[in-house]
Each structure stands twice: as structure tokens, then as C-alpha cells.
Amino acid sequence: MSESGIYVVGDIQGCLQPLRRLIRKSPIDLGRDQLWFVGDLINRGPQSLEALRYIKSLSEEMGERMKVVLGNHDLHLLALAHGVRKTALTYGMEEILEARDHIELLEWLRHQPLLVRDAASKSVLVHAGVYPAWSIKQAANYAREVESILQGPDYVKLLKKMYGKRPTLWADDLDGWERYRFIINAMTRMRFCTRKGGLNFNYAGAPGGQSRKLYPWYELPLVPRKNWRIVFGHWSSAGAWFDGNHVALDSGCVWGETMTMARIDLRKIVLYQTECKYG
Asked: Is 1 inside any structural domain?
């Protein structure tokens, strides 16, 4: 067990009031415990700008005790800020891009990781999941490859090249933008895979409604994970749940359902939830 508690919150997507309410009703001590976020901090909810400001301020107060990984919506915001996919501007994005402090906010966001590997708790924090054919060590290394570009001088090129569904299958000799695109897709967009590990983005509904040829990524452990626990969000239709090696935390707050927080450092996972109401 860690010295302080580790609390992880599912997708926020601009739903600041439920986030504040969830923090208040949970036993987390922001002055002592750790607080992690699975990404997709913004977009579609009513307070994307305020949520981004709030989470950034928490990171400044908490330092290393707070961790954030990037989700697909967060990466999309960064792309929009540099003129990529302007036609895909969705609710909450424009307010951020026009804010007086938008450069500061976006620079902070750009320097967040894709994956966090916490050896003390044997936990991995990632937005969508860990590709079934990767070990935890491999996944961490591949995440760092992308992070080094995203946080470096060529990051706009990466933002331009990251869109697309191909390649669908990983190969160690993938290189260049195809390699980075696959890593980003696996860590921020993945839900279903074929039995051989091919990424499939044609169906995004709940597990059980997919083709017989498709499997939720977490049901295809193609390599041993040695008791690591993977904590993720992204999949609102799958809801919040946990088993021995996975904790899923997107419970569809932005769609009017609930927001979920999990304490993951105890022997048994504990979930806290709040309804996503305003006013």
C-alpha cells in the first residue's frame, strides 16, 4: 500500500461542477493524497475552459502528487490550436482557444504524458488502454517516443500527422508518422481489436454489441502483464467497472450519467460517484 491514497478520476470533458462535487464527497485529502486523471479533460461539457484552468491549478498546487494523461479530445484541442482540422471545432473548444490565457493552458497540456507507469502501486494510467501485444515496459517506452516529439520543436508536424485509422496492426519495424499514429491511436482511441490485435474503430458501442470477430482490447492479453493494473477511461458506453487487472472509469458524465473516481492503492478498489447535474 502506498503512503498516501491514490485517487483516479474518469473523463471530465468540461464537466467541472460534477468534478468539484466528486472531490468534496470523496475522502481524498488534496494536501496529502495523489490525484490522477485519465484524460479527456475538455470538450462537449459546459465548462471546458474552467475545467482546464482548475485542473492546471491543481497540478501547480499538488506537484508530483497529481498526474494527467492525454486523451484524444485533449490532443484534438492542441491540433485545432495550430490550424489542424479547423472544421472539427466542437463545443467548448472555441472558448479555450479564445481565452486570454490559452497559450499557457495549451503549453501545460502539451507537456502532459500519454502514459504514466507507477511502480509503487503497480499501476498504469492511460486514456484508452494498453495495446494487447505490448508489455507494460514496451508501452511506456513507446509513449515516451511520442511524448518526446509532442513536447519538442516538431510537435505541430505530429499533430498534423496523427489523424487516421491506419496502420491497424502493430509491427516492431513501423517507423515515422505511421508508428507514432499507431501509438497515439492505441493509447487514446482503442476499444476493440481483432484476435490478432488489429485495431478496429468501426464500432464504438458497449462490449457485447460488436461483431464476433472483435474483442474488447482488455480481453486479448497477448503478452503477460505481471500483475500490473491498467487504469483507463475513454469508453463511456462500457461504464465504470474493475477486475483484478483493469479499472475503467468513464461513466458518461458528459452524457448526463455519472462521474467516477476510484481509489486504487488499497487491496480492493473503491469507487465513488456523483450524478452529473448542474445548478
From this structure: no
How many structural domains does the chain have? Answer: 1
Look at residue 222 and tell me if it is in a domain.
Answer: yes
Q: Do residues 195 and 215 touch, judged by C-beta distance below 8 A?
A: yes
Cell of 157: 508536424
Judge whether 26 lies within some domain. Answer: yes
pTM of the model: 0.95
Cα-based distances in Å from 58 to 30, 123, 130: 9, 21, 27
Residues 199, 191: Cα–Cα separation, whole Å: 8
Q: Do the beta carbons of residue 96 and residue 102 sit within 8 Å? A: yes
Per-chain mean pLDDT for the chain: 94
Give the pLDDT confidence of 220-236 residue by residue, as tens digits: 977 777 789 999 999 99
Domain holding 199: CATH number? 3.60.21.10
With pLDDT > 70 as the criterion, what percentage of the chain qualifies? Answer: 97
Q: Which residues constitute the domain of residue 78? A: 6-275
